[in-house]
Amino acid sequence: MTAMSLHELTTERLRLVPCDHAHLPGLSALNSDPEVMRYITGRGETPEETRAVIERVRARWVKWGYSWWTMIARASDEIVGIGCIQNLRKSGTEPDPECPFEIGWRVRRDRWRRGFAIEAARAMAEFAFTELGAPTLYAVCDPQNAASIAVMRKLGMHCRGIEEWYARRVLTYEITAATWRASAVPARPGEAHNDG
Ligand SMILES: CC(C)(COP(=O)(O)OP(=O)(O)OC[C@H]1O[C@@H](n2cnc3c(N)ncnc32)[C@H](O)[C@@H]1OP(=O)(O)O)[C@@H](O)C(=O)NCCC(=O)NCCS
User: Fold this and answer.
1) What pLDDT does residue 145 have?
2) pTM for the whole structure
3) How many whole angstroms from 109 Cα to the centroid of ligand 1?
4) CA-proximal residue: ligand 1, atom 20 (nearest)
């Protein structure tokens, strides 16, 4: 087992694998979709931009031991999205270890509303609380991003209101480790889903 594979997470339908250059075609297809990026940057990424993101993310895995995973459907080996545990930042381009952990998600448009984001989110949150010992977990989004807000709520997060992160005013949600342990159902085999 390599050091990288230690960070892989498995759910009923997904493998979460640290983002890798081998994932470039699938991640580029995801990130080049302006509808997927609507509330994130407002425009699709070029393949070269996605390649540079993967490079930065790989460096973060080496430095911190957590960052962005590629979501791969176990049934088909297709890339269906990405998700992260990382530190928030007020500004700049790199996560700030002084800031709280955040959880994030992005799913291919033709795979929306199939439960992939929440399935991955539960596994990533469990990783943050158990493996990283996170005291709390934040999630932030554009206040108009109803889909992301729905995932946050379904994860059991509560709304902190509008806060400034990433040099933007964003809607901010939080779940503490105590609340997670008391109420969350960790991702595990056997959850009811039909498609792969
Ligand atoms: C946000 C996103 C990742 C959700 O992915 P998904 O796989 O479709 O979400 P899920 O299927 O796991 O849905 C989880 C819950 O959210 C609800 N939901 C999903 N999309 C929704 C929408 N557009 N409006 C309202 N509720 C929505 C689902 O119904 C489900 O709740 P339920 O089980 O109680 O019905 C996806 O819409 C996406 O990739 N958006 C673009 C990228 C993005 O904005 N990422 C977040 C940046 S902060």
Assistant:
1) 98
2) 0.93
3) 10
4) 147
